[in-house]
Specification:
alpha/beta, 18% strand, Rossmann fold, binds adenosine-5'-triphosphate, 328 residues, 11 helices, single chain
Length: 328
């Protein structure tokens, strides 16, 4: 046990994701379990800079495990990108007696946490909280499972109307750089085609696939499109393109947008977040710093933040193949 850590701060930063509350709850309760104090920091790094703090006890996090979003609020903070901003943040942490920090967020948040440690020595551990599942060093980020289930539920509903009217739907889902939300939800919802940033299959292949689909007697089609797909066309342009080249199709577009971030977390995300919170606090108590907690093959692991932020997680080729086979 690291005896010098008596108070741990916790914040959520960047885009919110379902399960962040379960992670906060876990960090707070693990801190209490080990007889330490816990400071909740509101509005991410902005709140750290402004000293927007509250002492939490185990009871402060009652009834939040089932709630989406984050009770601590999240923020994007430009000031924290500058060393001066981080110096103020460190001073605020010091004044409040915070000896170590748990940061729950995505790539940017982890980058900021690492800088705070490197410049001022505050021990930090990161927890990957983002629906994109785009962080290296973990099979799953908190929120991904909930997001893909939300998308699947939405596509199931869209399919009902698509098949009633023999329509083709382009459904845009989140994923600027990584297509894991699109690929997993597309396979789960039985999409005909899935367009992801990692692959440019070309518009010809899309047309061929849709022609084949029509010829095989399918009454409706769903194409899942990640925001960052590489066709060079957005979903509305894709609609026009297909209508021009395949007038047989009645095409509609649905952009799912922010609904993908919301909602009550799935059991998977709640359990993952609970495990990650325990691992984060106990790693700090073991004297570790500058690591991100992750899960690999269902085991909790630590990855240096430097490595976690060095790239983006890769798409699963096997799942792409499954999706190809399923769309026959
Ligand atoms: P999401 O994956 O949901 O976008 P994120 O954590 O990557 O989450 P960002 O907006 O990139 O979200 O980062 C959140 C905050 O982290 C920023 O507003 C900023 O305060 C801090 N941050 C991001 N990048 C850096 C950086 N290079 N240096 C210092 N701080 C940073």
């Amino acid at each position: 046990m690291n005896q010098s850590i008596k108070r741990i701060g916790v914040l959520t930063s960047g885009g919110d994701s379902p399960g962040m509350n379960a992670a906060i709850r876990s960090v707070v309760r693990t801190t209490m379990f080990h007889g330490l104090e816990c400071t909740a920091i509101y509005r991410g790094y902005q709140g750290l800079i402004e000293g927007d703090f509250e002492d939490f006890t185990a009871r402060s996090v009652n009834n939040i495990i089932n709630k989406g979003g984050t009770i601590l609020k999240s923020a994007r903070c430009e000031q924290f990108r500058e060393k001066e901003g981080r110096a103020t943040a460190f001073q605020q942490a010091k004044n409040a007696g915070i000896d170590a920090l748990v940061v729950i967020g995505g790539n940017g948040s982890l980058t900021g946490a690492l800088k705070l440690n490197q410049e001022f020595g505050l021990p930090i551990i990161g927890i990957p909280g983002t629906i994109d599942n785009d962080i290296l060093g973990t099979d799953y980020t908190i929120g991904f499972d909930t997001a893909i289930n939300t998308v699947v539920e939405a596509i199931d509903k869209i399919r009902d109307t698509a098949s009633s009217h023999n329509r083709l739907f382009f459904v845009e889902v989140m994923g600027r750089d990584v297509g894991l939300v699109a690929l997993n939800s597309g396979v789960g919802a039985g999409a005909e085609e899935i367009l992801i940033p990692e692959q440019n299959l070309g518009l010809e292949r899309l047309l061929d696939s849709l022609k084949r689909s029509k010829a095989s007697g399918k009454s409706s089609s769903i194409v899942v499109v990640a925001e960052g797909d590489k066709t060079g066309k957005n979903v509305f342009e894709l609609k026009e393109y297909v209508e021009t080249h395949l007038p047989i199709y009645d095409v509609r577009v649905s952009v799912l947008g922010h609904m993908q971030r919301g909602g009550s977390p799935t059991c998977f995300d709640r359990v993952l977040a609970s495990r990650m919170g325990v691992k984060a606090v106990e790693s700090l108590l073991e004297g570790k710093s500058n690591f991100m907690v992750g899960v690999e093959s269902n085991k909790m692991i630590l990855t240096p933040i430097e490595k976690a932020i060095s790239g983006l997680s890769e798409i699963d080729e096997e799942l792409i193949r499954v999706s190809d086979i399923m769309s026959i």
